[in-house]
Design brief:
With 230 residues, this protein is α/β, with parallel strands linked by helices. The chain has a domain of 129 residues: Rossmann fold (3-Layer(aba) Sandwich). Helix content is 36%, strand content 12%.
């Protein structure tokens, strides 16, 4: 409400069927009062999240995950961008991190973060490498990065030895772990304390990329509304 967006959520029991959710999405597609639709992932295992994303009107897909919006990103065309990668790009922009010609490594190849992140960095004229769980000599790859984006979902996977001195490290991972005292806490994919001593810039977890994801979701919603009113 602080940015002038009226939002509402539709919550369903875990056993809700695919057909029921599809019907709800179709009604939202047709509602002229609804400017943006977000399907909150992950969904229960019996539901096909890909199919539900396909059902969403691409012009209302404010999470930027519909194939049409991802295709526009691939082609370098204007469109609704995936929120988390877009948030990372905005963060890099705000801190004046040079991207053109720099070596960027993206750890992770998901459609939510890894693949669109790599495309956005490529669009910014970075030299991009995508690494993942099957990549060999991972430490060699990451130590070559001027910009390192970790989005693999493995707590504290990235150590100081894997980071080039002065590199910009963006931690997209959000992992809940139990510490020695039995307390639950959130950590990223990066060992923050040790890597912070090596990196030029580093984002914390929580409080780093997460708020930027929300900001980009709001931006997508406002841009979609603006396109309708001219």
């Amino acid at each position: 409400s602080q940015v002038g967006i009226a939002s509402f959520g539709k919550h369903f029991p875990a056993q809700t069927s695919q057909a029921e959710l599809t019907q709800v999405i179709q009604k939202l597609n047709q509602d002229p009062q609804v400017d943006g639709i977000l399907v909150q992932l992950p969904l229960p295992e019996h539901l096909d999240s890909t199919s539900l994303l396909y059902q969403t009107d691409p012009s209302k897909d404010v999470d930027g995950l519909h194939p049409m919006n991802l295709g526009q990103l691939l082609r370098g065309e204007k469109g609704l961008r995936s929120c988390t990668p877009a948030g990372v790009m905005r963060l890099l922009q705000e801190y004046n991190i040079e991207l053109q010609g720099k070596k960027a490594v993206v750890l992770g190849r998901s459609i939510l973060v890894g693949k669109p992140m790599a495309l956005m960095l490529l669009e910014a004229n970075s030299t991009v490498t995508i690494a993942h769980s099957r990549s060999q000599n991972l430490e060699v790859i990451t130590r070559n990065a001027d910009i390192l984006v970790a989005a693999v979902g493995k707590p504290n996977m990235i150590t100081a030895e894997m980071v080039k001195p002065g590199a910009t490290v963006i931690d997209v991972g959000i992992n809940r772990v139990i510490d020695e005292a039995g307390n639950s806490r959130l950590v990223g994919d990066v060992q923050f304390d040790s890597v912070a001593e090596v990196a030029g810039y580093i984002t914390p977890v929580p409080g780093g990329v997460g708020p930027m994801t929300v900001a980009m979701l709001l931006q997508n919603t406002v841009e979609r509304w603006s396109s309708l009113i001219g």
